[in-house]
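for the recovery benchmark. tokens below, seq after
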């Protein structure tokens, strides 16, 4: 009798086996239908079906094959494991850059359903654009940041001007210097600084990039060289509570900017 690990190894060693057993768990299939599904040869399909029958994972009626309750049970567990491993591969990258100091929740469990946006060669600004989209879905923004982009603050300006969004942000001294001295940034910030709906505070030691848009949280990922690596979007209650607590901590340490 084969061991459980041997059966798992047998299944996952071939994508065709996984695809065929999964298809048979959904309903009866003929050999030709399984060939069309997988692109495997007739001999490969025949051998696979014999091996599945020997394990009592499938049954046959006429020219149709279908998973037995035992086979359906096996493939259901396997697909759940494969889904978890896909999530792990994504979170593996996230965990390299997630600011884990003083986090009081299980990062992996709380973020497994989060939306993760990574920059790509063809779309390096994807995280910034997604952060802007998240902004457009809310009416109140609270943020901490160690970096700024004209694209992001331009969306903030639009929403303050057109939608009356309330904004409260805590930035580092370096970020504030950029807001007022960089010509492109200053052109945007000048339209925000006099608004009663916008409040900017400054403090040293802001540890991360964080935005809270109503009940949804965005966490910016940066590496050791401060290079942007992605964005986490989450609406998990525990993540939201952590984000609010973190924002309140640094807001309590910050001072309002002295506008000229």
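predicted aa per position
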């Amino acid at each position: 009798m084969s061991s459980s690990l041997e059966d798992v190894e047998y299944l996952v060693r071939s994508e065709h086996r996984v695809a065929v057993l999964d298809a048979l768990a959904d309903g009866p299939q003929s050999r030709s239908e399984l060939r069309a599904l997988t692109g495997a040869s007739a001999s490969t399909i025949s051998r696979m079906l014999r091996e599945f029958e020997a394990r009592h994972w499938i049954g046959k009626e006429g020219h149709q094959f279908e998973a037995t309750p035992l086979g359906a049970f096996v493939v259901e567990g396997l697909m759940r494991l494969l889904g978890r491993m896909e999530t792990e591969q994504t979170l593996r990258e996230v965990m390299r850059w997630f600011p884990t100091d003083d986090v009081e929740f299980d990062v992996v469990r709380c973020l497994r359903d989060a939306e993760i946006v990574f920059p790509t060669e063809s779309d390096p600004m994807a995280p910034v654009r997604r952060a802007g989209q998240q902004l457009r879905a809310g009416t109140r923004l609270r943020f901490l940041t160690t970096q700024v982009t004209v694209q992001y603050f331009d969306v903030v300006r639009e929403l303050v001007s057109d939608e009356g969004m309330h904004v409260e942000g805590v930035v580092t001294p370096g970020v504030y210097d950029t807001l007022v001295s960089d010509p492109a940034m200053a052109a945007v910030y000048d339209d925000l600084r006099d608004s009663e709906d916008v409040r900017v505070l400054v403090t040293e030691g802001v540890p991360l990039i964080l935005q809270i848009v109503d009940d949804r949280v965005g966490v910016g990922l940066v590496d050791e060289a401060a290079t942007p690596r992605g964005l986490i979007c989450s609406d998990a209650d525990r993540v939201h509570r952590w984000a609010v607590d973190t924002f309140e901590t640094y807001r309590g340490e910050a001072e309002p900017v002295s506008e000229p």
